[in-house]
User: Fold these one by one.
Assistant:
Number 1:
Amino acid sequence: MPEKKLSTFSQAEKDKIIKQFMADFDLAFTAESENRADMVDDLKFAALDQWDEDVKNDREGRPMLTLDHIGQSIRKVTGGIRQNMPSIKVDPIDDGADKETASVLEDLTRQIEQTSKAQAGAYMTAANFQVKMGYGVWRVNTVENTDDIFTQDIVIQRERNPFTWYFDPDATEPQKQDGRFCIKSETMSADKFKMLYGKDVPSSTPSPSVGESMERWYSADSVRIGEYFVKKKKKRELTQLSNGVVIPTDEITQQDVQGYREQGIEPVKTREVEIDEIHWYKLSAFDILEHTIWPGKYFPGIPVYGVEENIEGKTEYRGIVRPAKDPQRMYNYWNSAAAETIALQPKAPYLVTKDQIKGYEEFWNQANQKNLPYLPYNPDAKAPPPQRIAPPSMQSGLLQQAQISAQDIQQATGVFEASTGQLPEQRSGKAVIALQQEADLGTSLFMANLASAVEHTGRVILDLIPKYYDTQRMIRLRGEDDSIKFVEINRPMLTPDGMRIQNDLTRGKYDVRVGVGPSYRTRRIEAASSMVELARVFPQILEVSGDLVAKNLDWPGADEIAERLRKLLPPGIAEPTEEESEQMQQQQQQAQQQQQIQQAAIQLEMAEKQAKIGNIEADTANKKASAVKGLTEAEQNDVENAVALAELARDQGNQQLMNQALAEIVGLIQSAPAPQQAPTTGLVG
């Protein structure tokens, strides 16, 4: 719960609130009292209390067997729910939302479910009640963070007694969120009440205006406390920002305005609207104990129903027990009658004459009570020896009626032999699966209604997250494969476009949907089985997917084997992992650095050679100028051609060809006769 406070109410205000509370409770109590009485009887019947008190009195001292067939049907339906638990998915629905933040919200919601043990606790507890009697409930709440007392975490709490919750009977939505109020009540001793709240339980009704049902709320030694969630209309001004986000004006601080402007965001327009504000009261029938504003727009109590029927304006809920009560009672009766017939049937009497047992009456009187080794008798010439009379056979109709009743139970629950494991051996695997799927259709309503409640739970959580995860902090996220990662939310970052908030969970609109199907672990096992079957038909597939087969196997060492097989895959088959990508980037960077070093060395070497070539060319030019006079015209042409070839080889980077051309030039010049007059200047060096 959010921080609780006791508002200051005048006595007149207290009386008005308590009076409305009592009126709303009486409204819900009266509307549901008959249905709840039937639900209690359903629970007792499922708990093997299957003989009416009148019948018990009439059959006192006689067999009354309870051979429960409904229990296995209940376990079948709840077992199917456990194996196909609905999972919450989050989708962005406006311009202020994005897929990355939606993924964070989805993983955060999954982590909230895991921390709360929601699937095994809240969801399955409610599903068990839903299947048995047609109604279960769980609660979304907030608790203090154990690591940081200044923050609160969202949790999903199970409700072991759904009868403590009452919802507005005028609500029509599946989870009653369109109602005006909901109430959770609990009863505690007067001593505990005084210890917690420092007040005594009054000995009389505090005010006649409060109501007429005070006996339900306190007595001399106990008191009932109610949590009263009620919607009240409130006018509120909303501000739309230039990025499309709409925020209540009274929640925008001057610091927020400055932060928006740094991001280039400005308020665009304002509008006054009327909204529902949920007030939370903890009160008794004579006093208000606590009060605060529930921060969400949805009630925290989330009911889940079974079969719903509206008969002449009156809504009735039920599970699979109620329609199966009569056939189950008949099954118990026919089997009890058969047992009684067999157990109470006397042992077959003996056919004897008086003379045959004369003097041995003591033996014969105990013949049906004791296992005597022999029975002496007197021979009688007028009669054959003593012999037993065959007993009457048991009526076969008793067992036939019991079998018919067993079939009637299946019809009433919607759970048949195909879904309880009782299948003829000669049927194929596909036929068995088809029969099981057909049998599941009879109870699919319970899964669909549970999925609807889980989906609404996601909406309640999404509505609360911006209120409680609005500061910069590290949070733990859980992926669909149960992988754990930590991310920082609401972190300011300086970008080229200005300041931005990374993983801003307070911005954007998101919606929820649910997926119903096997858990991730079950899907892994099924995937591995299918891959193995495929490999038998097409063995070559293991050459490119052996790591995937090993990865989906559920035994120790499978991940290590998958990693080894992955390294054996041909290049380009598998997408690199994050670690491999980092290694590849490092290797590429190292290769680039090495290449740059080599290129620098080559350029330096080329520069040195170019300098030498320049010196040689200058020297050659001088020598040519001085020696050309000693060359014939043909030799001069050869030198010019060699120089042109050397320049071309230099431009193309062909060092070998350039060296050959230079050598030819030097040879031609050296072979020329010495000039008449030597030049007065030296070679250019």
Note: The longest strand covers residues 222-241.
Number 2:
Amino acid sequence: MAATVKEYHDYLSMLDSEDPRIRTWLEKLGANTWAKVMSGPKRYNIMTSNCAESMNKVNVCAREYSVSKVVDFLRERMQQWFTERKEKAEKTSTILTRKCEKRLVALQAEATRMKVKPSCAYEFEVVDRRCTSFVVNLNTRSCTCGHFQLDHFVCAHAVAAIAIRPHLSCYTYISPYYTRDAWLATWSGIMHPIADRDSWSVPASTQNQRCKPPTCMKRPPGRPKKSRIPSIGEYRGSKRQRCSRCHVLGHNKKTCRNPIPINTH
């Protein structure tokens, strides 16, 4: 998750010392998939597919359902989520979301240990505890650490610079997407419940439509595939078996033919 070009090359050099083949593999994936500095200005700090993985996990129980039952299952799940998350957002009284407020408080504590040297009303040199200097520009909302402009959230250096200007607020330099209002707007929609089928008002044009079976080919013999398709760049290599008798990879205890040294002690 390199935030600067220097960090990007430092990480690659570190990986080269472990195994030179790693660089080739990462180059095939593309630097934008793992390096923040190469990912563009609207990536924020999201570099994983954890949200999709969470959906896969909670919906795994519906994998064997029919299509209509899967639709009902997903509707009920989304109806529950929208209600719970909207209520949680409504109970939040801070400007930012709860997680982001905690993040800002931690940054403010870190910023108190930094030295700020202003050069004008909007540009500052900030020196951290390691005596490393960073340049913060509040007009461009950027810092040489890279996190300010990439995450669209103040870094500790920006917080330190803002702190010496009493008329400025950190909230001004944080993206609206981190606010409680944006959180509430995300879950403001309504997933309407569905009554029993007898009470449905179905248009005549829909009633006269015939739902034809799929035109796909016959399913091939064998057990159908249930495991999900891995994402691009995701490694799903099979785990090699290790023998519990000789501790060598590639076979198990039952098929082991390797001699075992006798412990004479």
Note: The chain is about 35% helix and 5% strand.
